[in-house]
Amino acid sequence: MQSGEFPSLVELLLHHSRTSPYTYVPDLHTDKGAIKYQKRQELEERFELTQLADIHRANTPFYLHYENGQEYIRASRKTIRGPRLMYLTTATLIVVPVNLLSQWDREFIKHCEYPLRVLMIRAGVPTPSARSLASDYDVRTLKFFPEWF
User: Fold this and answer.
1) 3-state DSSP of 72-137
2) With left for phi above 0 and alpha for psi between -120 and 50, is residue 139 left, alpha or beta?
3) What is the mean pLDDT of residues 80-99?
4) d(CA 70, CA 82)
5) 32, 40 contact by CB (below 8 A)
6) What are 30-85's pLDDT values in tens digits?
7) Of 1, 37, 93, 121, which sits most exposed with the smallest number of CB within 10 A?
8) Kind and range of the H or E run holding 2
9) Cα 57 from Cα 35, distance rounded (Å)
């Protein structure tokens, strides 16, 4: 979209789908729920094959955070610090002690019928970008470090 133009209907719908995600989880123990789940999976697979899928993934909701309500703050004589880019996400962050990470992993597999996109952040593993964290995962499990408290 060019600056000063109104967004197209497609852009508005893609933005709405990112800011108001589909959260219904069907009951897979019933025939009706299994059929709904199957149809939803087929629609998602077909959507992934379209050009809109890349645009949908790239449209990560965000806002600009201004410190102290000011638009710009002069940090020093030569640099001007602007607002921070804050990504919005519906993901859940779980912080656990090191010895419980694998238990949480097993519990996700055991109790979640609907496939979750889980990221287990362990020592020595590079953390994905903030945009990826906001878009690509439903649950992030982070190792607990006692020195944080």
Assistant:
1) CEECCCCCEECCEEEECCCCEEEEECHHHHHHHHHHHHHHCCCCCCEEEECCCCCCCCHHHHHHHC
2) beta
3) 81
4) 9
5) no
6) 898 888 888 888 888 888 888 888 887 777 888 888 776 555 555 555 566 678 88
7) 1
8) none
9) 26
